[in-house]
Write a structure and sequence with these properties.
By secondary structure, the protein is of the alpha/beta class. It contains 13 helices and 18 strands. The chain has 2 domains: 9-284 and 438-465, TIM Barrel; 302-431, no CATH class. 31% of the residues lie in helices and 16% in strands. The strands form 5 sheets. It has an 8-stranded parallel beta sheet. A hairpin with a 2-residue loop joins strand 1 and strand 2.
Length: 468
């Protein structure tokens, strides 16, 4: 018996539960988890972000970039991206055996996003029901969906963002817009769509924001039958009872990103699964270190704490004596001429005494202090860049025009491709970026997971449908 008011919806010509599996980044969602989610009657989402492909024996092919130039490595990344996502979709489609639906998820800000999306849809005709896409303003999503006759589901974080996309492009392909995903910027894991008008430290209640989205959709003539998918912070459906069958909101579906991480079919390594069980409230940090420039939410691992500490060892400078910058910096920068305040020079001397003896410039006319090993890692990672983003703050890469953002590479950030590939394939949890939604602490509190119980995807979907 499904929780009261939860009814199947018509999606892609068949009845499915209004339960969407979040398509999580690099290899945190794959064919096994999404195929099983669809087989359980929901909408499974294959992540088409740098997905794994397989050799003839079924082993994952390591993504190695031996090309000399960034542009050649970027072309290789696109090839890996298409091959991997196609392999994932084919396998997921097979596991689903005609039940539920399979979506794919892409980040508009990933390097070569459009080429990868078109390459995948070209080779998986008839298998993919819809494309979810966020992280940026994906104006061309509707046009690509029309070309391959698949549904599209834009991911937005405000009514304003949706209206801009609709007015500019989506109204021309309204019939293929199957749903709008509202991803709450204070609750969801991964990259978050906080605008400059919103305060990262002051979460807003999602209900009025989703109501505003529905009002905007109605004003544009969009039917109430087009669901809004609530994404971020969803754990128990019973906590969303007033959203279900609510005439103010119209048709609502729910996306689960964090809960499916802890299932048998989830591809993340055991160390990551074990770490999820230990989280406490507040252990997920909304931060701005991502090289995308977006806010993102991840577990406060030592990796993330190190980035916080690195940014705290930071002072502004000028190239000439000016204003309060009256003394020359005499540590960490060799004989270079940097003028700072007397107080900041004292701070810099203290950091150097603690072993952070290398001053590295940032694009904002500041210097951060790191140890030699950390400086070497930063420089090597910047050299190894393979263009995984359309714009990368960490390496100054851009995937079009002259291939550079024109800004200094930012040592306060990190190589997101390296860390996400590492953690997804068994690298140490503490040394990497570990994305999770802000409700992840509930694994420890929810009796469903007690005594180290790990459900199958089918058991999880059945449990969710009870309201729990």
């Amino acid at each position: 018996m499904a929780f009261k008011g939860i009814q199947p919806i018509n999606y892609g010509g068949r009845e499915v539960w209004p339960l969407v599996e979040g398509g999580k980044g690099v290899s945190a969602t794959n064919h096994a988890s999404s195929g099983a989610w669809a087989a359980a009657g929901g909408i499974g989402t294959v992540s088409a972000v740098n997905a794994d492909s397989y050799d003839p024996t079924g082993k994952i092919i390591p993504q190695v970039y031996e090309q000399l130039t960034r542009r050649e490595r970027h072309e290789q990344l696109i090839r890996y991206g298409i091959d991997g996502a196609v392999a994932q979709v084919e396998r997921a489609y097979e596991i689903a055996s005609g039940k539920g639906a399979i979506n794919i998820n892409v980040l508009w800000e990933m390097g070569g996003a459009q080429q990868i999306l078109e390459g995948v849809l070209e080779k998986t005709r008839g298998m993919v029901t819809g494309v979810t896409c966020g992280a940026g303003m994906p104006y061309r999503l509707s046009e690509i969906a029309a070309k391959y006759q698949v549904n599209y589901l834009p991911i937005i974080s405000s009514a304003r963002a949706f209206r801009a996309l609709w007015k500019r492009a989506y109204h021309k392909v309204s019939e293929l817009m199957a749903a709008v995903v509202y991803e709450d910027p204070w609750l969801a894991g991964g990259h978050n769509g906080l605008s400059n008008a919103e305060d990262p430290l002051k979460p807003e209640d999602p209900y009025p924001r989703v109501k505003a989205l529905r009002d905007t959709m109605r004003a544009e003539g969009i039917s109430d039958d087009v669901p809004i998918v609530m994404a971020g912070g969803v754990w128990f459906l019973r906590e969303w009872e007033d959203w279900i069958d609510n005439p103010e909101l119209g048709q609502i579906a729910f996306q689960f990103g964090t809960r499916p991480l802890l299932t048998h079919e989830s591809p993340i390594p055991q160390g990551w699964k074990d770490a999820l069980r230990e989280l406490e409230p507040g252990d997920v940090l909304l931060h701005r270190f991502s090289p995308t420039g977006f806010y993102s939410s991840a577990v406060k691992t030592p990796f993330l704490r190190n980035l916080e500490a690195r940014s705290e060892r930071q002072i502004p400078y000028s190239k000439v004596e000016a204003g309060e910058h009256t003394v020359r910096l005499d540590v960490g920068v060799g004989n270079k001429n940097f003028w700072v305040t007397p107080k900041d020079r004292e701070r810099a001397r203290e950091w150097v005494a603690q072993g952070h003896n290398e001053g590295v410039r940032t694009p904002d006319d500041t210097i951060v202090f790191v140890c030699e090993a950390e400086r070497d890692t930063i420089q090597q990672d910047q050299k190894d860049c393979m263009g995984c983003l359309s714009h990368c703050g960490f390496s100054s890469w851009k995937d079009h025009d002259d291939y550079t953002t024109g800004r200094l590479a930012d040592p306060r950030s990190f190589c997101i491709q390296k860390t996400l590939q590492d953690i997804a394939h068994g690298g140490p949890v503490e040394d990497n970026l570990m994305f999770a939604g802000h409700a992840a602490y509930r694994f420890k509190q929810d009796p469903f997971y007690s005594n180290n119980f790990t459900p199958s995807v089918k058991e999880l979907v059945d449990r969710i449908l009870t309201g729990d």
